[in-house]
Design goal:
Chain lengths: 186, 163
């Protein structure tokens, strides 16, 4: 069994915290969580730790350890710390998809602004565009990728197919073999 | 409660706007309920990851029935004559734990599932010497990696997480 991350935080709080840190919460959920954050010092401490790790990862970006080195480190770390390490490492890397918590606006202005915008949008939609569809959330399967500088083809099918193909185009190949296009052979 | 006719309402614009305001607030409430995100995904302690290691070859042969889903994906991208499944493994991996599988060419596949959200499981995958990736994968989504040189063919590694 894997070790629980913290005795102070329950599993749900931890999931929410990571989702908040990764910018994956919707406006309303973020607002709710920020209210909770304001009242929970252990959550704030955990968040500070995550942010420090992100900063450290950014600073170390230029000297990213080779996969083998990272793997040996990851093996020696307790599972949850390894997970945090991976998440922190992902931040700021090429092709990185996740975004951090938005800055600039104060915590209470963001939900208020979201509510006003939502109210205006609701009235506008009801008045002007009956039957308009809702927003579609983006985000592909591949969030981060490191091929060691080699070209890669990533084919992400729509949800119906449910398949993602990650194919190195200039990987070392066997005798008489080439890859990458439909007119090529294995 | 005082009733007023439509004609009276027309004569009283304040009342009309108050009525519209109430309707707008009602709609706003409905919208908030509809747009509110669902709670966090159900607690998931472990993910089952089916790993299939197959070899594609230019030599004539058959398509292994276990590799039909991969074949359906790859046949438009590559020309090959046979697909043979060399290894099939069902890894039960706890969230945050690392699972490793030695590939037929001696390199290692390492998979670590992180948190599970309504968008899927966050998987950190390292195909040694080929690629390292972070993926957010929905239940049952198939991810195919390749090619890993293997003899006169190529290995393809597919992962299908379920929880």
């Amino acid at each position: 069994m894997h070790r629980r991350q913290s005795e102070e935080l329950d599993e749900r709080s931890t999931r929410l915290l990571h989702a908040y840190h990764d910018g994956e919460l919707s406006s309303l959920a973020r607002w709710r969580f920020e209210r909770r954050l304001a009242a929970a010092p252990e959550l704030r401490r955990e968040l500070r730790l995550l942010r420090r790790m992100r900063e450290a990862a950014r600073n170390l970006d230029a000297q990213q350890p080779a996969p083998d080195l990272w793997d040996s480190i990851a093996f020696s770390l307790p599972a949850e710390e390894a997970r945090r390490g991976d998440e922190a490492t992902s931040v700021g890397m090429p092709g990185q998809w996740k975004r951090g918590p938005a800055g600039g606006m104060s915590a209470w202005l963001k939900p208020a602004g979201a509510l006003v915008a939502l109210a205006l949008a609701t009235l506008w939609v009801v008045d002007r565009v009956p039957g308009a569809g809702g927003p579609v959330r983006g985000g592909g399967v591949v969030r981060w990728l490191d091929t060691g500088g080699r070209d890669v083809m990533v084919l992400e099918d729509d949800a119906r197919s449910g398949t993602t193909l990650i194919w190195l185009l200039d990987a070392e190949v066997g005798p008489g073999a080439s890859v990458g296009r439909s007119d090529e052979v294995v | 409660m005082r009733l007023c006719s439509r004609a009276q309402q027309r004569r009283n614009p304040t009342r009309v706007w108050a009525h519209r305001g109430r309707a707008g607030l009602g709609l706003l409430g409905v919208a908030l309920v509809l747009l509110a995100p669902p709670g966090p995904a159900r607690a998931v302690d472990a993910v089952s990851i089916e790993v299939l290691v197959s070899v594609l070859s230019a030599h004539p042969g058959t398509i292994d029935p276990r590799g039909h889903r991969i074949d359906a994906k790859l046949r438009d991208q590559l020309r090959y004559e046979s697909l043979r499944v060399l290894e099939q493994a069902d890894l039960q991996v706890g969230i945050g734990e690392l699972a490793s599988l030695e590939l037929p060419n001696g390199s290692w596949l390492r998979v670590r599932p992180s948190d599970v959200s309504r968008d899927g499981v966050l998987l950190h995958v390292d195909v040694e010497g080929l690629v390292r990736t972070d993926l957010r994968v929905r239940n049952g989504h198939l991810v195919v990696y390749g090619p890993v040189p293997h003899g006169d063919g190529k290995l393809v590694i597919s992962l299908e997480p379920r929880w």
